[in-house]
Write a structure and sequence with these properties.
Elements: H1 4-18, E1 23-28, E2 49-56, E3 59-66, E4 69-76, E5 81-87, E6 95-101, E7 105-111, E8 117-122, H2 130-133, H3 139-142, H4 146-154, H5 160-164, H6 175-185, H7 198-221, E9 261-265, E10 268-272
Antiparallel strand pairs: 1-6, 2-3, 3-4, 4-8, 5-7, 6-7, 9-10
Helix pairs in contact: 1-7, 4-7, 6-7
The protein binds a DNA duplex (14 and 14 nucleotides) through helix 6.
DNA sequence: ACCCGTGTTCGCTG
DNA sequence: TCAGCGAACACGGG
């Protein structure tokens, strides 16, 4: 599921579903999703009330008020994770952690491939987690500062597409948003990050923001805020809402002449229009 | 059977 | 010393 837009939908869902509610029971499968690997330690959550649901990039951070003080939950959805809400007793596919609420609903942290994470953070001191401390600015919350982005890109010899996946540069941009942002900015994903001119960085900064906002809007229109589940485009029935991602061979939506090309960058599929995003810019 | 995948970390290399 | 790369993780779908 998760890049910034999907995780933002998950954050909004969790807030709407559970803010102010008390946890009455916790269950978990002993998978690698549980960092300490001990489902029993989750008992600390029982009786706690959800006070806040925050997000930086792809990281979800829940703050709960418990009898013995504040407890944090760090939830990362990995490649295939999602938060679902089900009635008590109702099953959810690939459910790894279950939080029963005092209103009869149960929240499921579900994750097929088990690349996600669910761990307790004493005192909700999330900044003590290295993976949180390393995160760069969140485009949706903090905006994208052109000078800061230019400085970060100037420091690396990686291709621009690969640099965009670096969560320390911008938190929340994933493999889909990287292709989409570069398409909007009309930049060749293969170009060295340090070679971008100031106007190009400006375009990129705008492209990242526009891509994230439009994707969020597309998910909202698709009913991603339904109680059942968040709709991801790869799931059954959902259409591909993206301009170039996973559209190899299709006509470029902008120039309508060249066909979308696919290359591998940073070990991942990367989609772009060779005509719109050529070296000439 | 084989390849691919919305993410991140780890180990090796130059 | 360290940036950069590929493999690994785990599982299902085409």
């Amino acid at each position: 599921m998760p890049e910034l837009p999907e995780v933002e939908v998950a954050r909004a869902n969790l807030a709407r579903w559970a803010l102010g509610r008390r946890i009455t029971a916790v269950e978990a499968e002993p998978t690698r999703v549980l960092r300490p690997g001990r489902p029993s330690s989750l008992a600390a959550l029982v009786g706690a009330r959800l006070a806040a649901v925050d997000r930086t990039g792809k990281a979800l951070m829940l703050r709960l008020d418990g009898k013995r003080g504040t407890i944090g939950v760090y939830s990362h959805l990995g490649m295939t994770g999602k938060w679902l809400r089900r009635r008590g007793g109702e099953a959810a596919r690939f459910s790894r952690v279950r939080l029963a609420l005092d209103d009869g609903w149960v929240l499921h942290h579900a994750d097929l491939r088990l690349f996600g994470r669910f761990l307790l953070v004493p005192g909700a001191r999330f900044e003590r987690l290295p993976e949180v401390a390393r995160l760069g600015p969140d485009p949706l919350r903090d905006g994208v500062d052109v000078e800061a982005l230019a400085a970060a890109l100037a420091r690396t010899r990686r291709p621009i597409k690969v640099a965009l996946l670096d969560q320390a540069i911008l938190a929340g941009v994933g493999n889909i948003q990287a292709s989409e942002a570069l398409f909007r900015a009309r930049l060749d994903p293969r170009r060295p990050a340090a070679d971008l001119s100031r106007p190009e960085v400006r375009r990129l900064s705008a492209g990242v923001l526009a891509s994230i906002r439009d994707t969020l809007e597309a998910f909202r229109q698709d009913g991603a805020l339904d109680d059942r589940a968040v709709v991801a485009y790869v799931e059954e029935g959902a259409r591909n809402p993206f301009a170039v991602y996973d559209r190899e061979g299709e006509p470029c939506p902008r120039c309508k002449r060249a066909r979308v090309a696919r290359v591998t960058l940073g070990g991942r599929g990367t989609f772009f229009c060779p005509r719109e995003q050529g070296e000439a810019g």
